[in-house]
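Retro notes
What went well: the complex prediction finally ran end to end.
Inputs used:
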Amino acid sequence: MKMRQLPLKNLLGRPGRTAALVLLTAFLALSVFGGSVVVRSLRSGLDSLQARLGADIIVLPASAESKVSFKDLLLQGTAGAFYMDASALDRVREVEGVEIAAPQTFLASLKADCCAVKVQVIGIDPDVDFTVKPWIDRSYSQGLDDMAVAVGCRVTADVGESLKIYDRYTHVVAKLAETGTGLDTAVYCNMDTMKALLAAAEEKGVSHKITSDDSDLISAVYVKVKDGYDVGLVNNRLNGHVRKATAVKARSMFTDVSDSLTGISRTVTLLIGAIWTLAFIILVIAFAMMAAERRREFAVLRLVGVSRRGLCGLILTESALCSLAGGALGVALAALAVFPFTTLIETRLGLPYLAPSIGAALLLAAGTLLLTLLVGALASAWAAWRLSRTDPGTTLREGT
Amino acid sequence: MLRAEGVSRMYMRKTGQANHFYAVKGASLALVPGQVAVLTGRSGSGKTTLLHMLSGLLTPTEGHVWLDDADLYALDDKALSRLRNGRIAVVPQGRSAIDTLTALENVMLPSLLYGGAGDRAAALACMAALGVEHLANARPAELSGGELRRVAIARALSQSPDVLLADEPTGDLDDENTALALSVLQSAAKRQGRAVLLVSHDTEAVRYADRVYRMDGGTLSEGQ
């Protein structure tokens, strides 16, 4: 036997008490790691969504809100279709203060071969698009040819495969990086492909026409406002100038989401804080009780020559071993509870949710373990200090 | 040689009044290598308090304890702990085993400190001298009071100390094992040149003594 094995022997020799301490620290680690991953994923999701859109103003058909929530379309991938005549794009461009106006056309597919559920097809104009195209360019920079599509990461079709939409075969040329939003379940194509798909839908009896003679349809216009112009003012001008359309400031579109996210973050943070405060108090009491119960044992160690510092080291090592075991267990349990159910959490919360990368998750796990170690050390420090300061002679007398 | 010079230990009574008393007052004695000293006295007379002060476990409120040239309570904790580990062995009253270690590991414990590898053979020899070597792998919870006491004596002997202080070393022992323990402790003094102090109620212990001390109300005197 080596002296450094004594803390481990002490822990293994008292399995009940050790298990209680490990479970308590596991609960701590589970709450902080699980909570942190969820809050971080929500923040990343919102950041990603805002980065993807990047527009100051979005102009939608006046009827859009009644057909489908645009917010739901983005956040949850709810398939939707609302249209206005492409001439609305020209009207938007006429408004003073508009720097770029990029159209997009949406098409809700029927149940496609690729997916168990409907997917949203989004047609973009690659020449002017400044919202989706930069994101597509990161995965595929050669431009979207006719009948070529880029798919979101949750669409079950890989690069090189064909994707049948309304009996038209499209060619998957890129799979896009995850955003944690409804954009991940969408399919992107150019406007000519979109026209072909709209025509195919028409043949299937799914009409999107808003008048009998319209030929070009768009669903939304994304507007970037020139520097020096007030977004609110340009928004008001658009609402006055473009008929049968509603201009919405992008920032206000995210206000609800951002508020929900802040609320959830606050709740999770408060919950974690409450759990940690409670668990810290319980740990302090547990270590104090342990110290009281083992006073005689520690006095005997002093009697055979263990110094005060050595005794503190022994107690802190036991605490560290418990914290490490509990921390690892808690992180593992939280990972099992959070990572496999990313989609479920996103759906239940109804908010953009972008799970951290493996590297970020490992960093969070390491941070959680460090925090658990620190709390364990702090909780046992008082007991260790008190014990090391007690005259062993007094303890040995009391214990007889 | 271990010397105590005018050591006292004062305690405050928790009565709400400014009240104090001396558990030990002005005690002086010398423990000589190769000799067995026995300290007797009534319960509560201050015997254990004096033993703890002699062993560096309880700081006296007055006086000094010297081990050769070293004033124990002038040393810092690290130096005192190391000195205790190497030169002063104590058999305390009552249970003194670490429950999570086997009897043998308990006996080896002092030799594992400060980078020691632990002397298994020496530990087993000490256990054999006290008739408990067959309990080497037993846990303290499996041992009787008498067996634990002999394991504690074996641990003190295994330290090969210059000074061995034993508080009621025969308290839980039957006559046969009392005689065995006392003869082993006497042998430690006579054959190995250790200074031994036995605190005991047991009149049998006096038979092994070279010097006898008596405590009465915190005051130490020599002779029966």
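What we learned: The CA atoms of residues 296 and 396 of chain A lie 6 Å apart.
What to try next: split runs per interface for comparison.
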